What we know:
Blueprint: E1 8-19, E2 29-41, E3 46-50, H1 57-64, E4 72-77, E5 80-81, H2 91-96, E6 97-100, H3 114-125, H4 130-144, H5 160-172, E7 178-182, H6 190-207, E8 210-215, H7 218-222, E9 227-232, E10 235-241, H8 242-247, H9 252-259, H10 266-271, H11 298-302, H12 308-311, E11 324-325
Parallel strand pairs: 3-8, 3-9, 6-7, 7-8
Antiparallel strand pairs: 1-2, 1-4, 4-5, 9-10, 10-11
Helix pairs in contact: 3-4, 3-5, 4-5, 5-6
Amino acid sequence: MSDARPLIELDDLVVQYRVGAGIRPGSARRFNAVDRVTLRVRPGEVFGLVGESGCGKTTLGRAILRIVDPASGVIRFDGQDITRVAQSELRRLRRDTQMIFQDPYGSLNPRMSVERIVGEPIRTHETTNRATIRRRVGEVLEAVGIDPARMGDFPHQFSGGQRQRIGIARAMAIRPRFIVCDEATSALDVSVQAQIINLLDDLRRDFGLTYLMISHDLGSLRQLCDRIGVMYLGRLVEVASVERIFDAPRHPYTRSLLSAMPIPDPRVERARKRIVLSGDVPSPLAAPTGCCFHTRCWLRQEMGQPEICRTDTPELAERGGEGRVACHFADEEPATDDVSAPSLS
Length: 345
Ligand SMILES: Nc1ncnc2c1ncn2[C@@H]1O[C@H](COP(=O)(O)OP(=O)(O)OP(=O)(O)O)[C@@H](O)[C@H]1O
Ligand SMILES: [Mg+2]
């Protein structure tokens, strides 16, 4: 699989937003919601993106689908540079890529029947023949575990989990190659979450899909993902295989995320120490100099506050280990082992 051409290639991708335009003329400021992200996603891979609220996960997903325009950098989809392709020419990309959202109710039009909701992308991209659309809608509903006999029903007549299945059916209807799942299971209760994750996994295998799975919760990414990227203030701070992220995380931010995850074994849970980050996530409008994480970094404190963290931005690089990490001291152990993240095996 590693020899295959990447399906998604991002080089130094920057996405900016303007804020404050409405207050005073000339008062608008720009900030980097996605800050120089470089990443490859292979065909068939499930890549997880994790990080606190506001760190830029959704923006990155939307940029790859060209729903928002990048300020600089390069986006390639299946080898084709789509960075500057005009919206009007994105038809092909719109067929190949889809997004599944967190809120399965808000993202389904309550006044449309399931047949119309799921049939809409088929009508837009493939055919207006009603019988064909009906047949295709029936097939895809079947694939996601919804009784096709219910295609005349409306979203409110389904449970939350069923509505998420309908959202997935809509995304699958035109057989895309790449799907961004943005917190697709966050609003669902645990048992339904597990069913949806299994469904996404089955669909991936049956249809050869590639996913970008976005979540603020590392635990929910564990089962499905091959690799995970950890984001902080618009930047990727660590990228590694799912095993490495859980068993040997290297970035101090990744280690703090892991330490916040509950562990089912009460003995292990009692014995371990949490890494509680001090302070809030800085405003992206006033992003720290040097390492974006240095203002909250427990490892830097343990290391005696080295200046380099404040002055030099660590690039995301291999740094002598597996995966890539953006930290000057990623593999240094702090003086006490109190704060190190536990092994979760
Ligand atoms: N349309 C917009 N205009 C201006 N700023 C925006 C816009 N959308 C998002 N932002 C800002 O960009 C940053 C990244 O937002 P984004 O929605 O990508 O974060 P996220 O990681 O998906 O967060 P969450 O986990 O809460 O969904 C945040 O600071 C957010 O306030
Ligand atoms: Mg989001």
